[in-house]
User: Fold these one by one.
Assistant:
Number 1:
Amino acid sequence: MSEIKILHMYADMLDLYGDSGNMEILSYRCRMRGIGCKIDKYSIDMPTPDFSRYDMIYIGGGADLEQQHIANDLLSCREGIEKAYKNGTFLFLICGGYQLMGKYYRDADGNDIPGLGLFDYYTVAPDSRRKRCIGNIVVSTNITGEEIKIVGFENHGGQTHGIKTPLGKVLYGNGNVSKGESEGYFEKNVIATYMHGPMLSKNPEIADYMISYCVHGDLSPLSDKLEHDCRGVMLQRLLK
Ligand code: GLN
């Protein structure tokens, strides 16, 4: 039986809107196929993990304050994360975690929280904390070779610029910038997105894309009727 190993970073600090739920979905979809799924947790002050041992590194989202709290610790992990990523470890990043893999996140007061700079993008918050991108979002992506309309929920002030390879095209909502055209960041072993917790429960194809990448092979199909029906309702409501 194959097994995937995931490192979930800062689950105690970066877990807005149930971002940890994405781990439940990956684990469930592996279990249904007889694939093992071992999830280790890492947070501030724990011994530095051997990042290269993992098939996937996952970081959720958080408010500015939590991002500030973890920033230095994350920087101390830079070398290990970069090496793992370059060796093919999958990076799955939500909102605050997404922002901190870029060059920096500049908050509403103009203070920079340094990012790891693995990617060229950078994020700047608007001058007013009240200007936020909040609500449902629909994004069209082709990462599996077929069009998937991803349904999600976003809540961020930060406006992310300099994205050359987005996760998809915004059909409803904002995405990387207010009223933007593109959402997230994508490489074959990176999915970074502003879509929070329910992302994988609503969009099982994205979960399977990642599992398939990690096991280096095709997956047996699961019945996703409920997921497709739920998504259908949202698409009808939002894209009508
Ligand atoms: N603090 C960041 C922002 O507002 C990230 C928020 C989040 O992770 N939801 O842009």
Number 2:
Amino acid sequence: MKKIVIAIDGHSSSGKSTMAKDLAREIGYIYIDTGAMYRAVTLYALQHHYIQGDIINEEALRADMDKINISFQYNAETGRPDTYLNGINVEKEIRSMEVSDKVSPIAALGFVRRAMVAKQQEIGKAKGIVMDGRDIGTVVFPDAELKLFVTASPEVRARRRWEELQAKGEQVSYEEVLDNVKKRDYIDSTRSESPLRQAPDAIVLDNSNMTIAEQKEWLMQQVQSKIKNEELRMKNPTA
Ligand code: DC
């Protein structure tokens, strides 16, 4: 079967990562979480004390970029890939509050983005990948065969995030979470380096009122019809 590139972008807490991971597993594709890559760079900067409060030592980080090696390895227990930083499994550390707090300004640095985008393009050369992020369909793979833009209303995303935090025992009000979701939307879509934008040829999935099963069915239809079209196009390139 023809292998394609599937680019999944969208708002935070839209459920795109879970959707992308499940899809990759289902169709036997490699899943790449590009947010994890920006998180790994942030962890490296924290480990080397290049971040002090709100100040980033950009010169030191820039000089170290070729010493930062990020890779992914499949974890048979979780059925998902774990993120490795210079050969060490950092899957847990990159999800910490400390990293989450500092990742946005690191992901906004042009030299960091250029290094990560080059790496993502290298990984995607062989096709057969599902990559999720903010700029995959616009910057990393503008020619991806299938582009999805996942969203849901801020209220629905805030409720999902609030429920997750409640389950973890974190004391936070729904209003605070909603405020944070709206603030992150604003930062993500107004930064100067690769802002979150919907590619003109992306298919929009607003999952505000969809169940997981409905979403899955919709997604499989999109993927199957795209692969079929690509196969037809290969057989008859002039059509
Ligand atoms: O999806 P996430 O929360 O793990 O992403 C972490 C951060 O990285 C978040 O601030 C958005 C940013 N990011 C980005 O700028 N470009 C991407 N392709 C993926 C994530």
